[in-house]
Amino acid sequence: MQLEQITSSQQAIDLEDKHGAHNYHPLPVVLSKGEGVHVWDVEGKKYYDFLSAYSAVNQGHCHPRIVNAMYEQASKLGLTSRAFHNDVLGPYEKYATEYFGFDKLLPMNTGAEAVETAIKIARKWAYEKKGVKETEAQIIVCENNFHGRTTTIISFSNDEGARKNFGPYTPGFLKIPYDDTEALEETLKNNKNIAALMLEPIQGEAGVYVPSEGYLSRAKALCEQHNVLFIADEVQTGIARTGKLLAVDHENVKPDILILGKAISGGVYPVSAVLANNEVMDVIQPGQHGSTFGGNPVACAVAMAALEVIKDENLAENAEKLGNLFRRKMNDYIRNSSIVNLVRGKGLLNAIVINDTEDSSTAWDICMALKENGLLAKPTHGNIIRFAPPLVMNEEELLDCVNIITTTLKDFEK
Ligand SMILES: *Cc1c(COP(=O)(O)O)cnc(C)c1O
Fold it and tell me: Per its UniProt record, what NCBIfam families does this chain match (predicted)?
């Protein structure tokens, strides 16, 4: 059998359509190369990437330092499993725990696995440290959350598409409105079996919902008051995306459990991690949790390089500065716009809300037009378009992108 050579975008799309499961609805663009803030399609057309693989590629596409770390390590030792030690895991765990300020790290591969890990740790902590009766622990989550795709995680989603016909669902989760301190306080008061509150510091998939100022710090204080763990899912918001190393840093909140994924590898390899201090992490003992690939030498080498790049290239500061510029420029446009209602976000995690119904195709049509004009973005939840370029962008490029976006939007004004 011969391997198919791709010579056109349509050919690649047809192959996926015929031979791949239809679990995504991508924009019809076939990418074959990436460098920094740019990607190229099969025909050689160049685009600004304004999604960054859902904020996995914060360091830019194919960052030479990260790619080199992967190449060097992959050529030396790739996978040992955790049945044996390897000489990269320890140095990585030391580096990452000091970097984020926690005692310990548990390495996994994908965001969903790290979320699952955090749930398991929180439940075990509730039974062994808090004294909750076994099988009765509850975890508070927020409406419109996105934490991944496993059966347990979709059990507490309220996205019909993510949930419907995948039951029976995992029990043990209480859903409250996001950004609602009173609902949180009520739930904590009325239930003695709460192990944890788990939330996204900004709800990314839901449409970049930024909670009101003070929500995260008040939620953390309430958790402390009720001896409940505060779990921050920073898989999308973490690692410089929102203008600080972590989104919780905007409110000086220190989570009891921190979940990282996506950008911890700069997008070149699946790496995720759960961080916590000893009193929480030590509930996990040998044989109680694991992953064949978790903590493998390539993942560790890649993650160290990816984290170094964030600091050495001042990506948090750059995201803060360019994010402010982006929202200012977009607000200038929106003042006289009938098609865009608002722009919101922090750092370089932003979204615009299109003035049309949620089931309209306007946001999709705008993304198609943006693609024609050399910028790739994707609607999230109907009429919202997320804008999250790699953080290695410079001011001139950002202004160029603002120009592409506003010029494109003008064609849609009523
Ligand atoms: C993407 C994401 C996940 C899931 O990560 P995967 O690597 O796709 O499993 C979990 N939480 C949040 C907040 C995310 O954005």
Answer: Orn_aminotrans (TIGR01885)
